[in-house]
Amino acid sequence: MNDLLRKFLEQFNRFKAADIDLIIENTTIETFKKGELVVVEGQISDKCYLVLKGCLRQFKIVDETEKTSGFFIEEMPMVIYSSYLDGKPSEFSIQCLEDTILVSGTREKELEMQLKSPILEQLTALIMMSDFRKAERYIALLNNYNPEERYLKFMKLHSNFLNRIPLVHISSYLNVTPESLSRIRKRIVQK
């Protein structure tokens, strides 16, 4: 499994062999089955992750209904920042939609690695900025577009997700009912 992580890291020209070895020595490869929860709402999530293989969704239970707020596939980082950084119970759960392989690390190991390799501190900052942009786009999607526009934007930005995620989770992410999403999809096909 470490070969998969090494291959992933080698594709970035910024890492020296010593940086890659440091990451591999200080992280763990974890496997999960489809349907398993990686993070459980209400529990502290003290790990950060990188998806090596699989598809996952982030969701929260609101009035006994699951509200999906994010998806993760290969090469995407995955962390519940408020829990990971502040040690607070997670407001979200993360569930595997497929059999999944993740690289996991702890905050303690992350800080140790950053002291040994400044490039890793830069990488952490870049990941956090990317996640912030992703959150901004999601807020804008929900607040500035009608349901059909939301779906069209989702299709454009995340075409690689469409065949991997059940429509019930996509409809939840877009804040529409599954029936409304079905009508939207039918209208789009008829155009």
TrEMBL record:
PROSITE patterns: CNMP_BINDING_3 (PS50042). CDD domains: CAP_ED. It holds the Pfam family cNMP_binding. InterPro entries: cNMP-bd_dom, cNMP-bd_dom_sf, RmlC-like_jellyroll. Residues 11-57 form the Cyclic nucleotide-binding domain. Transmembrane segments: none annotated. SUPFAM superfamilies: cAMP-binding domain-like. This is CRP-like cAMP-binding protein. It comes from Flavobacterium nitrogenifigens. The lineage of its organism: Bacteria, Pseudomonadati, Bacteroidota, Flavobacteriia, Flavobacteriales.
